[in-house]
User: Which sequence fits this backbone?
């Protein structure tokens, strides 16, 4: 893991730990600990990363102390118990197997104490305990304790025997089970089989390999997987209560169970069985072995076909996690996005997934005032999407819209209009994102307003806001199969994730449009309505908004109150806006605009020294963003 990426991860860990310590909320900390990239990085070796992981070890130890304190003070929280299981997985990745085993056992003990007396485990705890028991069993096998690993296997499979009405323990019925298993259990079965084979107990080894094949049946048998994916959630009755367990629509080819750690690919799970069959041809019919080989090859081929789609799905999950940090820690969020892009640099340069990442980072760099690097990334993304042809029109329209926004910020109005016009054409009736055209219309309205076409800007903005306001999207309207980034994703999954991302970004552009409408109202001297709109934006700031939205709303209210000479209120908004600038919660052109507005306020109040200071800082920041001949820079320096 590059130092750049490690620092972003450390900053995020510290913030998540603070939230757990102060609020008892372990969700974000659990999400970080469950991130496959985090566990893979934790297993790194080498002197260059040793010092960094020693620092992380300290944070993990603090997290463990918080877990134990919260479970003592507030009762046993399921999130806190899960956190201890994830910490155990971290120690296993760091090869501290003794500490890992200790924490798995403590987490399991705490989980069992949450059971309702006489009623068995509560809904949700079974899955946690299954994964923790599997992890424990794998650790037992590392130290050669097959008996204890077998005992834990029986505990894991016993619950499923109750649910399915079929024996999943050591009986041959396991291979015919109608209940799909987790890949983590397939790994355990395969490892147990290898251990029995090493002891010379071929009968038990073969039975465990059959158990493994039963666990991996959804991965190996396409027809079985497809048929099962349409089933309703499994329900069971326990002490007069109906528990809905789940409908496991997971990717069985390389499933990831965070409590267990990073699981191997399917060939490493099924491969030992095929080697076993080759060494003992009399134990398994040749036809059965041939069938398994064909199924394994088919599963590997399918995984390779789905690689780009799954990679994109992982990127979307990363986006959501980082978007959650944009308001509270925008600079760390941007570093995280850049680290994600850096991790993809070795990918195929024509990959639409890499282009998507460039487009995302390019947009955030515009907000931060890094126009040079933003332009480079956005042009590369647009070129990739252009080469993809008509299927990539949706993604191309998005990249061109962002590039049009960049040229607008640089006041290259003619270049901006050419790109925005084409983006509007590409995004009309977008099959992937129903809000696409409206998002570009927000940018186009800003262009019209800058050119003095206030009436046209207002009409364009009103149309866009009317579309964006209807954000309760019926995802059935999204057309499937039009997005080159979703190749191989099951239709319902593609529909759901596409709808979710479309709606998240619709919220961003809607709030952006409201601030633009406040600008227009201010120009029309409708101060009362402009103030109401800006305050509405402040009330709606949430985890999924543009990173500097709150600061921009402060700056808008500062400008409005200055215009009506309400200096006491203007001073209040100026303090909040300048605090955002100083705290790096406002950068780029947003920071320049805030400093300019604060300088105008100080000048109106007769505080010329303070005004000069704000004008100077605004000019210094602007000089780092635009070319020396930019008219805005010349205008600012006239006040100095």
Assistant:
């Amino acid at each position: 893991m590059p130092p750049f990426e490690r620092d972003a991860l450390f900053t995020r860990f510290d913030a998540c730990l603070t939230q757990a310590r102060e609020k008892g909320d372990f969700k974000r900390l659990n999400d970080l600990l469950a991130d496959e990239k985090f566990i893979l990085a934790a297993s790194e070796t080498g002197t260059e990363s040793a010092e960094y992981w020693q620092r992380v070890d300290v944070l993990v130890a603090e997290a463990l102390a918080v877990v134990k304190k919260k479970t003592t003070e507030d009762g046993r929280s399921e999130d806190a118990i899960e956190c201890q299981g994830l910490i155990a997985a971290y120690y296993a990745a760091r090869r501290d197997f003794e500490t890992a085993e200790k924490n798995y056992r403590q987490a399991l003990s705490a989980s069992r104490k949450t059971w309702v007396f006489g009623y068995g485990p509560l809904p949700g705890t079974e899955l946690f305990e299954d994964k923790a028991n599997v992890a424990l069993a794998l650790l037992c096998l590392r130290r050669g304790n097959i008996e204890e690993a077998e005992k834990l296997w029986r505990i894991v499979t016993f619950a499923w025997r109750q649910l399915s009405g079929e024996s999943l323990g050591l009986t041959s019925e396991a291979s015919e089970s109608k209940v799909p298993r987790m890949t983590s259990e397939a790994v355990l079965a395969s490892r147990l089989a290898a251990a029995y084979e090493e002891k010379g107990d071929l009968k038990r080894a073969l039975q465990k390999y059959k158990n493994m094949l039963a666990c991996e049946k959804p991965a190996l048998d396409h027809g079985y997987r497809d048929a099962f994916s349409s089933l309703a959630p499994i329900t069971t009755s326990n002490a007069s209560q109906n528990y809905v367990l789940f409908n496991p629509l997971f990717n069985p080819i390389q499933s990831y169970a965070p409590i267990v750690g990073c699981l191997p690919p399917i060939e490493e799970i099924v491969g030992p069985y095929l080697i076993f069959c080759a060494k003992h041809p009399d134990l398994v019919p040749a036809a059965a072995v041939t069938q398994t080989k064909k199924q394994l090859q088919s599963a590997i081929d399918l995984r390779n076909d789905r690689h780009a789609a799954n990679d994109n799905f992982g990127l979307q999950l990363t986006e959501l996690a980082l978007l959650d940090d944009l308001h509270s820690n925008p600079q760390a969020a941007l570093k995280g996005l850049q680290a994600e892009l850096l991790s993809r640099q070795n990918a195929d340069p024509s990959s639409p997934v890499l282009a998507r990442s460039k487009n995302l980072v390019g947009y955030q760099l515009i907000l931060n005032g890094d126009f040079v690097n933003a332009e480079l990334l956005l042009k590369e993304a647009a070129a990739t999407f252009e080469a993809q042809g008509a299927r990539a029109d949706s993604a191309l329209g998005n990249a061109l819209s962002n590039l049009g926004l960049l040229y607008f910020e640089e006041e290259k109005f003619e270049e901006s209009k050419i790109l925005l016009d084409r983006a509007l054409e590409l995004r009309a009736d977008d099959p992937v994102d129903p809000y696409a055209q409206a998002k570009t219309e927000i940018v186009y309205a800003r262009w019209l307003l800058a050119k003095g076409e206030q009436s046209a800007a207002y009409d364009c903005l009103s149309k866009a806001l009317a579309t964006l306001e209807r954000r309760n999207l019926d995802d059935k309207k999204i057309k499937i199969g039009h997005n080159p980034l979703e190749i191989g994703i099951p239709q319902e999954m593609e529909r759901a994730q596409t709808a979710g991302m479309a709606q998240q970004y619709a919220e961003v552009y809607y709030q952006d449009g409201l601030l633009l409408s406040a600008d227009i109202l201010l120009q029309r001297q409708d101060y009362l309505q402009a103030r109401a709109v800006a305050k509405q934006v402040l009330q709606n700031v949430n985890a999924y908004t543009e990173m500097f939205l709150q600061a921009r709303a402060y700056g808008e209210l500062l400008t409005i109150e200055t215009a009506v000479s309400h200096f006491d209120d203007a001073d209040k908004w100026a303090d909040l806006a300048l605090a955002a600038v100083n705290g790096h919660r406002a950068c780029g052109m947003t920071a320049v605009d805030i400093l300019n507005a604060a300088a105008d306020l100080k000048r109106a109040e007769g505080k010329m020294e303070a005004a000069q200071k704000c004008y100077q800082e605004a000019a210094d920041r602007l000089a780092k963003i635009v070319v020396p001949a930019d008219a805005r820079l010349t205008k600012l320096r006239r006040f100095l």
